[in-house]
Design goal:
The chain is an alpha/beta fold. It is 46% helix and 21% strand.
């Protein structure tokens, strides 16, 4: 069963540990960061579905952490709930100006906080802001990125799809399939961090489809490293026999058992310098065609 990820940014060990234990018991994955810099680093490594953020931190205050999250296209969509001892109107206004989703004051009612967390995550999913499995931007946020870049140059879109995902899901089940999605999202983040820029965008268009928008100079390095790393790291989700033989036995549409290759990535590359786009649909259509051609090479 899918567990939403929460990052708890709190330097008080007792409060942080209590929240981690509580939300873990409520079927969430909870992780702690005691410093602002640590919180930003952990967010880049694995996107949380929500951040509970204390305002008073030893290094960066919560406002600065939130501001950094909001100006980065990779993290601007993540719901943030401020957790603070302050109850000043000016503090709340400052948080709202930064795009904080909610605000709760210490001492707090844990059941109230749980409901605020549930509502913030559900609202993000309902408004097509994030994919619940990967935590990545989806739907409307991907469209907004296309509308932002369409009349600019020096960007490249990578249309990423996991080949043979449906067969894998059929054989290994939806729980392991969700792990494949999360592994892919994490891998995309690591590779873009290394070869792209901080302003690069990563989105989850749905199921086994992902979108990367980067600068043209970084596209080939991202493409090559994604293909190579995915081919190696995805093997951890297969059993020994399937890894050794290099395929799984799945059923085709007629119900016959057939050999199906292990999962790989197909990536279509669309550099803006080679096209003049009139509509965002043209971007996605050209990218999908490039990816389909790449998949059958």
């Amino acid at each position: 069963m899918f567990k939403p990820r929460i990052l708890i940014v709190e330097d008080d060990f007792d409060i942080a540990n209590m929240l981690k234990i509580y939300f873990t018991g409520q079927n969430y994955e909870a992780e702690i960061a005691s410093r602002g810099v640590e919180a930003l680093e952990k967010t880049r490594q694995v996107l949380p579905n929500l951040i509970i953020l204390d305002i008073l931190l030893p290094d960066k205050d919560g406002y600065e952490v939130c501001r950094t999250l909001r100006v980065n296209s990779r993290t601007s969509h993540i719901p943030v709930i401020f957790l603070t001892q302050k109850d000043e109107r000016s503090d709340k206004l400052q948080g709202l100006e930064l795009g904080v989703d909610d605000y709760i004051t210490k001492p707090f009612d844990i059941d109230e906080l749980k409901l605020r967390v549930q509502n913030a995550i559900a609202r993000a999913e309902r408004e097509s802001l994030t994919d619940p499995h990967s935590g990545l931007p989806s739907g409307r946020l991907i469209e907004e990125q296309f509308r932002r870049i369409i009349h600019h140059k020096d960007w490249t879109m990578l249309d990423v799809r996991i080949n043979y995902f449906d067969a894998f899901k059929e054989v290994y089940g939806f729980v392991t399939a969700d792990e494949a999605i999360r592994l892919t999202a994490k891998l995309l983040g690591e590779v873009v961090d290394k070869f792209g820029t901080l302003q690069d965008f990563i989105g989850h268009a749905g199921s086994e489809n992902f979108t990367i928008i980067t600068i043209e100079a970084a596209a080939q390095a991202i493409y090559q490293n994604l293909k190579e790393r995915f081919k190696q790291e995805i093997l951890t989700l297969y059993n020994f026999t399937d890894r050794e033989q290099g395929f799984i036995m799945a059923f085709d549409q007629s119900g016959q058992s057939v050999k199906t290759p292990l999962m790989t990535l197909a990536i279509g590359i669309v550099p803006s310098s080679q096209y003049d786009f009139a509509d965002i649909r043209e971007i996605t259509e050209i990218a999908a065609e490039a990816r389909r051609k790449e998949a059958i090479k």
